[in-house]
Amino acid sequence: MAEEAKQETPAAAEVVVVEKADEVVAVEKAVEVEAEEKKVAEQEEEEEKKAEEAEEAAGGDEAAVIEGTGSFKEESNLVSELPDPERTALAQLKELVAAALAAGEFDLPPPPPPPPAKAEEPAKEEEPKAAEAPAAEEPKAEAEAEAEAAATEEPKTEEPKAEAPAQEEPKTEEPAKEEEPKAAAAAAAAAEEPKAEAAAEEAKPAEPETEEKTVVVTEDEGTSKTVEAIEETVVVAAPAAAAEAEAAAPKEELIWGVPLTGDDERTDTVLLKFLRAREFKVKEAMAMLKAAVLWRKRFGIDAVLAADLGLPELENVVFYRGADREGHPVCYNVYGEFQDKDLYEKAFGDEEKRERFLKWRIQLLERGILDQLDFSPSGICSMVQVTDLKNSPPMLGKHRTVTRQALALLQDNYPEFIAKKIFINVPWWYIAANKMVSPFLTQRTKSKIIFCTAAKSAETLFRYIAPEQVPVQFGGLYKEDDTEFSTSDAVTELPIKPSSKETVEIPATENSTVVWELRVLGWEVSYGAEFTPDAEGGYTVIVQKTRKVPANEEPIMKGSFKVGEPGKIVLTVDNAASKKKKQLLYRFKVKSSSESA
């Protein structure tokens, strides 16, 4: 903002003093720039003041919503522990699911029939026929004569008189082509006789077929057809019966690897998710479940899970890391990564890329559910989400549509999968906007959502997630490449009051090595380390000379000391120069000589 002011203000000054001398112009520019910078500084101070007020208000709201340091406590999924109304609702939902499966309501509708053939194709086929018509006129007489002969041969009980012309008819055709026109006319006249006889036969009432013919048909054709029918019945009867039996049995339907019906105890956990999402309104829960199953089939979840979407660049945007204090896996969303313009374009550059990003996000969630959640009644079946809004892209952008679409899909098809949603590094205006929306949220939803500004982000995270589980970038001590400490090595938290000093004593045995690491959020404190032997008259060894650590220092300080005699390592953190409370995180190990080797 200050830079924009610096660019716009000189331009305005030049218009006003365009006729003045160069020196006067320079002076006026400097005065205006200085005034603008002062104005910007005042605005920044005002924003910081508002942010601090928002932080205090946010801290009060959080304390009111959640008591203690534990994460959201999920309701029991054991049927025996459910209240009677909830147990009844679960039983009713099971009945509806079984009926829907039997009726095929979880199956996608059949694809629409193919469009009718275009009228142009028959027309194209008729064109060659029309072209061939003149050429076919010449043999037309032959075709008609043969058809008439076949008609006269059809009834077998006719006298042989009608057959003679039919046999002689082909003979009259050959001379008709070779003889003179007179012979052709005679042949044509002879051909008229069978036509007249055929017309007379058609006019007569149909005579019943003779018994002899019936017997022949029965022996020759009827018997063969009957045998074929019997053979077909024998061959087709077994598959047809199997198909009917298969159609009668309801098809097993799975969601997240859990059957919707049957004796699997995980089924209750899944169905209870949909019931809780709809406040145990059975019909609404059933509608939500059916819609979710059909969406999964249309979206092609199985294919998405197996797909290689080729987006390794997004590994730092959304990832799973550690667990909260109750054992829920934690998923981090770091939207500030999209400050990288190349990464932003790869994710949201066009419609195809946005669709791929959506599939990638759903794939990541599905894999997290399958790999990290347990749907058994006593298992962990939900997760904690941490969303970092620091340097996140503006709401208006190419990502807006896909973000809304993803949010809608998660709300409609993944009920009760979030135990807690923590927003960190939230701008003050975001917290103010949330206060306006808060009255419209249910108490259950509000109890899961936490907003905190940058100054309180780490402190808030530690209320729900232990520091050894929190990545370094968010104020914790977790590092992927740490060879000395792991998430199993607990971290101790120690508050440091303003204008005070704290010390940490680590007992050390003879012939051992002491290893430690510590972090003060925001630093701006003095830090030092020394070894003090237990023996009287021993000499104190300065391990780390006391010095002031600035805020931009390496976030974690590490140290080690090889001990030759019993004593203790003393770590000192002095907050004398600060008027703000600080938070110290530390952990250590004492390893024997054999372990050190």
Automatic annotation (TrEMBL):
Keywords: Cell cycle, Cell division, Cytoplasm, Lipid-binding, Membrane, Transport
Gene Ontology cellular-component terms listed: cytoplasm; membrane
Biased composition (Basic and acidic residues): 34-52, 118-130, 153-182, 192-214
Gene3D superfamilies recorded: CRAL-TRIO lipid binding domain (3.40.525.10), GOLD domain (2.60.120.680), N-terminal domain of phosphatidylinositol transfer protein sec14p (1.10.8.20)
Short name of one Pfam family: CRAL_TRIO
Entry's transmembrane regions: none
GO MF annotation terms: lipid binding
UniProt biased composition (Pro residues): 108-117
CDD domains: SEC14
UniProt xrefs under InterPro entries: CRAL-TRIO_dom, CRAL-TRIO_dom_sf, CRAL/TRIO_N_dom, CRAL/TRIO_N_dom_sf, GOLD_dom, GOLD_dom_sf, PATL, PATL1-6_C_GOLD
GOLD domain boundaries: 484-590
Disordered, as annotated region: 34-222
Species of provenance: Oryza nivara (Indian wild rice)
Compartments, record wording: Cytoplasm; Membrane
Main location: cytoplasm
Entries under PROSITE patterns matching the protein: CRAL_TRIO, GOLD
Protein name from the UniProt record: CRAL-TRIO domain-containing protein
